Amino acid sequence: MNQKGLLTAWNDAKGFGFITPEGGGERVFAHISSYAGRGRPVSNRKVTYSIAKDAQGRLRAGRFQYAGAAKVGASMAPGFWVAFAVVLLFFTTLAGLLHQGYLPVSVLAAYGGVSLVSFMMYWIDKQAAQRGAQRIAENTLHLFELCCGWPGALVAQQAFRHKTRKGSYQFVFWLAVLSNLGALGWLLVAPEAMSFRQQLGFDLSKSLQPLIW
């Protein structure tokens, strides 16, 4: 980041704005996917940025963040802490079920492992978006979210400010979350899931059914 300028005309709803170079000249387009700082960008803040080109060869900010005092004052987006709290509550619940013998360690390990993979995939996709490189397919991200990776994806979305403003993506994401939780509930209590519980190593002497029904 060897350029300095002022972030102007920032539209937070659409996630883009323009940077006016410190020494004057044509404004440079800046997109939220290229923001490398904390929180959300705000207009009329000094920034440092690099120069890149989009697919059409037009100049844009390859990566930008606040500079000086603005950088120090930036904080993590509130949505990150909400997401972190939700995920922490979810894993605490799973750990409690494990401790009581209602859940095998394999299920907790699956959520933890796939969530870590999902988190890393979001980071890789965000880096690719900033460089204009090949992206990870959205269907691939959704597949990992559905297969127990949604906790990691939820935290990654807020930590990297990635995929949070795309309504169609969020709709499918939350559909994947609900589908996964529904499948987990079915696995834990449904009589029809007995064979699956046996394969996964559930303690069949204990069951959540008396607590639910």
Ranges with pLDDT <50 over ≥5 residues?
none
Computed CA radius of gyration, to the nearest angstrom: 22 Å
User: How many strands?
Assistant: 5
Query: Helix- and strand-based class?
Result: alpha+beta
Number of domains: 2
Between the first and last Cα atoms, what is the distance in angstroms?
60 Å
Shape: elongated
Number of helical stretches of at least 4 residues: 7
How do the helices and strands follow one another from N- to C-terminus?
A: EEEEEHHHHHHH
Arithmetic mean of pLDDT: 85
Q: In this structure, how is the largest beta sheet organized?
A: 5 strands, antiparallel
| Proportion of strand residues | 15-25%
How is this structure best described in words?
By secondary structure, the protein is α+β, with helices and mostly antiparallel strands. The protein has helices spanning 69-73, 78-99, 105-131, 138-160, 167-189, 194-200, 209-212, and strands at residues 3-11, 16-21, 28-31, 45-53, 59-66. The chain has 2 domains: 3-73, OB fold (Dihydrolipoamide Acetyltransferase, E2P), CATH 2.40.50.140; 78-212, no CATH class. Helices cover 52% and strands 17% of the residues. A 5-stranded antiparallel β-sheet has the order 3-2-1-4-5. 23% of the residues are buried.
